[in-house]
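User: Could you go from structure to sequence for me? I need the amino acid at each position, not a summary. C-alpha cells:
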C-alpha cells in the first residue's frame, strides 16, 4: 500500500469536511477545496473548474506552485473541449484518468509511476444532479499513479467538495436575495419619503425632520425656522413652454436650494410648485432672512427651459419656532406669510408676525362660526337688479349672499367667502342659497329670473344638476327663470366643464359666465362652454368712459358674444356716462348701483325699490329738439314713434303708449314701446269709461300723474304680470285744435313727479296735438 493509503482516511475526510463547512463564502470555499487537495489528499496541484452561466468551464481556484496558479487561474475552455478530454480518458469509478503514456511518446522505468502527461479528473455534481464543475489533480506527492484506494478517497472528497460548493452557492444566492430585497426596501423607503421628481424630502419627511428639529431646539435653545416657497406665475411656464419645461424648472430650483443649505438643514417639496426649507441651529431670525435673500438672488439668474431663457421668481414666507410651536403650526404660519408676500407684489419674503397670527386666529374663529351659521339661520340673500339699459326695466335679480353675524353685524362675502369655500360649510351654504333664491323668485309672481352664483368646486360636483332639479320642483320655479352664474377663475377643462354645464342646460336652466375677462377664459372658453350669457367684469365697465383699452375689450367681448349668439350683461355700472358708453358699444343689459344696490326682498317683486330713472339734463332743450323732429314727421306713424321715443328718453320712462280717440270715443293704440305683446294687445283698444289714468285722460282731456303710493288698488294686474314692476304712471292729453288722444308713460322705478316733469309731458302733448292739426287730422270731438 502506498504512503497515502497509510493515512487515516476517515480522519482526513472529517478534517476536510470541517474545513469546508466552516465557510459559507463561495470564494473561500473554492480556495479551501483546492488547498485541501494539496495539504490533505496528497497531490501537488489541484485545479477547480466551474461551469459558467454561458456553459463554458472556467478555472476558479488553483492550489500549487505560484507559476501554475498564475497560468491557470481564470482560464476558460469550452464545454466541448472538456467533453473531448473526458471522452479520451479512462473511467476510474466516478473519476476519469487520462493516461499520458498511451501515445508511446515517452517511456518510464516503473509502469506505476506518475507520467508528466497523466491527469486525474473528479466531476462535481450538485444536489440537483447537474454538473457544477470538474476537480483536476496532478503531481501526486509519492509520484505514483492512483490505485483504487486513492481513487475512492478522491471520489468521497469530490462529493464533499460538491456539497460545499452547492451550500456556498445557495448561501450566496440567499445573500444576494436579501441584499436585492434590502435595496428594494431601501428604495421603497426612499420613495415613500422623497419627492419622485426632485428627490427632495416630501411632506411626511419634512414634518418628521421638523419634529426632530423642534425637539433638539428645546434641548439646546437654538432657533428653528421654516421657509415656505412658491414659484411665482408657475402656470405661465407650463402653459407657454410645456409641462416638461415646468418639471425642468422645479428640478433646477431643487438643486439650487440644496446648494444654499447646510447639512443640518432640510429641503422639501410639498407638491406642485411649493417648496419648504427647515433651518436648524440658528441664532435668530436674521440667519433665516439671510437664507431667503440668498435664495431670491440665486433664482433671478436666467435659466434655459425648452430652448428659451426664463427668469424665475419666488415668494417666500418665513416662520420662527416659539415656545410650544408644532410642525403644523410653523408650516401654517409660513404659508400665511407666503400669501402676504404674494399680495405685496411677489418676488420677496415676508416674516410671520403677531398681526398675521391675530388674523389667522380670527380666520379660525370665523371658520368655526361658519360651521353652524346655516343651522342658526344667520344667512341672508340680497338682490341686485339686472336691467335693460335703455329703460332701466328689471329683467331679473342676482342673489348675493350676506351673513347676519351675531356680533359683527351684516357681513358681505368678502369677509367670509374664502374661508367658507375652504371649509365644510361650503356645501350646506350653497344648498341654502339655491333653495332660498328659487323660493323667493317663485313668490314674486313676475316674469323675473333669479341668478345664483356657483363656485367651480360646486359646479364640478356631479350631483349639482339633480339637486337643482329637485329645488326647482319643490319651489315651483320655472327652469328658465333660474340663472346659474359660473366663474372663469380656473383653466378650462374642455371635457369636464362642458359636461357640468350641459347637465344644467339640459334642465332648461340659463347659464351665465361671470366676471368675463379677468380669469382664464377666452375665445376657446366661449366657443366650447354651452353658456347663454357673458357678464363683463366691472373692472372694464368702470373704465369704459375714459380708457380706450377697456372700450376695446368690451367691444371685442360684444363682438364675440354676438357671433356666438350670447347675451351680454355689464357688471358694476355706477354712472349714466358708463351706461351710455356701454349702449354705444352694443351692450343692452347691465347691473350696478346706477339702478340699485343689493337689497333684501321682503316679499313680492312689486315692492322692489330701484334707483330713480335718469331725466334728461336739459328738458327745455329736449323739448325744442322734439318739436323739430315732429316738424320733420310726415304722417301719423312717424309722429307716434317719435313721440314715444322722446318721452322714454326725456323722462326715463320704461314704457310709453301713443293712443288716439276714435269716432266712438274709445282709445286706439297707435304705437307702444317697453311693454310685452300681451300688454300691447290688452290695451289695443281702451274704453274711455274705465278708471285707468289713460281712460280718464281720453274721456276728460286732463292729465293724470300717479306716484307709486297712489297706485295701490288700481286694476293693473295685466301690466304687472307682463311688463314688470310699475311704480309710477302718467297720462297727458294730445291737444291742438281739439282733443286727439293721450300719451301714457310708466316707470318701473321711483320717479320724482315734480311740476317740471309734469309740465314737460304736458308740453309734449300740446306739441303733438299741434303737429297732428298741421297734418290735417280732425279730432273726433269736432
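Assistant: Here is the amino acid at each position, in order:
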Amino acid at each position: 500500500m502506498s504512503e497515502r493509503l497509510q493515512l487515516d482516511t476517515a480522519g482526513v475526510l472529517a478534517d476536510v469536511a470541517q474545513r469546508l463547512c466552516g465557510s459559507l463564502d463561495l470564494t473561500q470555499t473554492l480556495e479551501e477545496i483546492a488547498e485541501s487537495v494539496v495539504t490533505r489528499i496528497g497531490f501537488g496541484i489541484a485545479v477547480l473548474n466551474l461551469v459558467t452561466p454561458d456553459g463554458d468551464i472556467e478555472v476558479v481556484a488553483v492550489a500549487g506552485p505560484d507559476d501554475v496558479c498564475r497560468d491557470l487561474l481564470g482560464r476558460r475552455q469550452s464545454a466541448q473541449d472538456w467533453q473531448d478530454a473526458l471522452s479520451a480518458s479512462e473511467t476510474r469509478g466516478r473519476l476519469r484518468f487520462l493516461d499520458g503514456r498511451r501515445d508511446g511518446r515517452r517511456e518510464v522505468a516503473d509502469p506505476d509511476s506518475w507520467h508528466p502527461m497523466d491527469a486525474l479528473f473528479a466531476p462535481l455534481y450538485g444536489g440537483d444532479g447537474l454538473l457544477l464543475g470538474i476537480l483536476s489533480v496532478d503531481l501526486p506527492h509519492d509520484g505514483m499513479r492512483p490505485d483504487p484506494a486513492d481513487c475512492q478517497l478522491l471520489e468521497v472528497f469530490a462529493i464533499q467538495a460538491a456539497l460545499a460548493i452547492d451550500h456556498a452557492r445557495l448561501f450566496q444566492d440567499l445573500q444576494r436575495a436579501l441584499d436585492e430585497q434590502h435595496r428594494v426596501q431601501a428604495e421603497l423607503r426612499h420613495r415613500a419619503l422623497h419627492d419622485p421628481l426632485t428627490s427632495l424630502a416630501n411632506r411626511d419627511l419634512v414634518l418628521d425632520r421638523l419634529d426632530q428639529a423642534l425637539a433638539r431646539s428645546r434641548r439646546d435653545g437654538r432657533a428653528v425656522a421654516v421657509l415656505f416657497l412658491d414659484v411665482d406665475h408657475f402656470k405661465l411656464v407650463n402653459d407657454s413652454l410645456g409641462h416638461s419645461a415646468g418639471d425642468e424648472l422645479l428640478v433646477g430650483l431643487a438643486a439650487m436650494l440644496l446648494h444654499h443649505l447646510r447639512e443640518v438643514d432640510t429641503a422639501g417639496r410639498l407638491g406642485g410648485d411649493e417648496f419648504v426649507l427647515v433651518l436648524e441651529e440658528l441664532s435668530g431670525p436674521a440667519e433665516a432672512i439671510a437664507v431667503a435673500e440668498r435664495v431670491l438672488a440665486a433664482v433671478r439668474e436666467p435659466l434655459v427651459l425648452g430652448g428659451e431663457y426664463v427668469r424665475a421668481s419666488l415668494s417666500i414666507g418665513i416662520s420662527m419656532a416659539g415656545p410650544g410651536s408644532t410642525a403644523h403650526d410653523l408650516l401654517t404660519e409660513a404659508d400665511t406669510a407666503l400669501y402676504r408676500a404674494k399680495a405685496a407684489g411677489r418676488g420677496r419674503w415676508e416674516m410671520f408676525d403677531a398681526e398675521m397670527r391675530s388674523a389667522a386666529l380670527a380666520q379660525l374663529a370665523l371658520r368655526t362660526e361658519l360651521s353652524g351659521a346655516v343651522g342658526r339661520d344667520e344667512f341672508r340673500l340680497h338682490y341686485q337688479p339686472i336691467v335693460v339699459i335703455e329703460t332701466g326695466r328689471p329683467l331679473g335679480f342676482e342673489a348675493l349672499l350676506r351673513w347676519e353675524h351675531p356680533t359683527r353685524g351684516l357681513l358681505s362675502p368678502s369677509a367670509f367667502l374664502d374661508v367658507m369655500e375652504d371649509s365644510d360649510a361650503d356645501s350646506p351654504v350653497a344648498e341654502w342659497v339655491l333653495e332660498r333664491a328659487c323660493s323667493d323668485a317663485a313668490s314674486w309672481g313676475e316674469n323675473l329670473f333669479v341668478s345664483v352664483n356657483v363656485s367651480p368646486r360646486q359646479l364640478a360636483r356631479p350631483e349639482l344638476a339633480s339637486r337643482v332639479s329637485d329645488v326647482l320642483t319643490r319651489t315651483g320655479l320655472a327652469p328658465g327663470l333660474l340663472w346659474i352664474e359660473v366663474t372663469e377663475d380656473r383653466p378650462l377643462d374642455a371635457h369636464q366643464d362642458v359636461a357640468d354645464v350641459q347637465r344644467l342646460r339640459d334642465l332648461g336652466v340659463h347659464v351665465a359666465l361671470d366676471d368675463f375677462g379677468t380669469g382664464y377664459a377666452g375665445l376657446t372658453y366661449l366657443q366650447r362652454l354651452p353658456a347663454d350669457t357673458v357678464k363683463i367684469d366691472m373692472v372694464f365697465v368702470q373704465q369704459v368712459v375714459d380708457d380706450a383699452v377697456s372700450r376695446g375689450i368690451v367691444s371685442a367681448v360684444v363682438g364675440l358674444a354676438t357671433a356666438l349668439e350670447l347675451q351680454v350683461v355689464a357688471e358694476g355700472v355706477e354712472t349714466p356716462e358708463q351706461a351710455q358708453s356701454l349702449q354705444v358699444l352694443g351692450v343692452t343689459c347691465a347691473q350696478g348701483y346706477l339702478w340699485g344696490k343689493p337689497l333684501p326682498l321682503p316679499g313680492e317683486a312689486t315692492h322692489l325699490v330701484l334707483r330713480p330713472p335718469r331725466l334728461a339734463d336739459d328738458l327745455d332743450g329736449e323739448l325744442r329738439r322734439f318739436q323739430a323732429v315732429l316738424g320733420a314727421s310726415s304722417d301719423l306713424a312717424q309722429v307716434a314713434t317719435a313721440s314715444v321715443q322722446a318721452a322714454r328718453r326725456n323722462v326715463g320712462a320704461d314704457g310709453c303708449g301713443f293712443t288716439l280717440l276714435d269716432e266712438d270715443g274709445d282709445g286706439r293704440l297707435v304705437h307702444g314701446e317697453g311693454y310685452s305683446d300681451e300688454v300691447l294687445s290688452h290695451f289695443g283698444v281702451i274704453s274711455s269709461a274705465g278708471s285707468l289714468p289713460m281712460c280718464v285722460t281720453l274721456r276728460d282731456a286732463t292729465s293724470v300723474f300717479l306716484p307709486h303710493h297712489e297706485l295701490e288698488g288700481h286694476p293693473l294686474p295685466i301690466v304687472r304680470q307682463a311688463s314688470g314692476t310699475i311704480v309710477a304712471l302718467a297720462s297727458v292729453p294730445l291737444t291742438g285744435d281739439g282733443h286727439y288722444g293721450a300719451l301714457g308713460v310708466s316707470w318701473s322705478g321711483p320717479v320724482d313727479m315734480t311740476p317740471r316733469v309734469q309740465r314737460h309731458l304736458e308740453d309734449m302733448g300740446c306739441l303733438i296735438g299741434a303737429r297732428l292739426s298741421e297734418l290735417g287730422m280732425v279730432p273726433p270731438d269736432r
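One structural detail worth keeping in mind: Confidence is low (pLDDT under 50) at residues 1-7, 602-612, 717-724.
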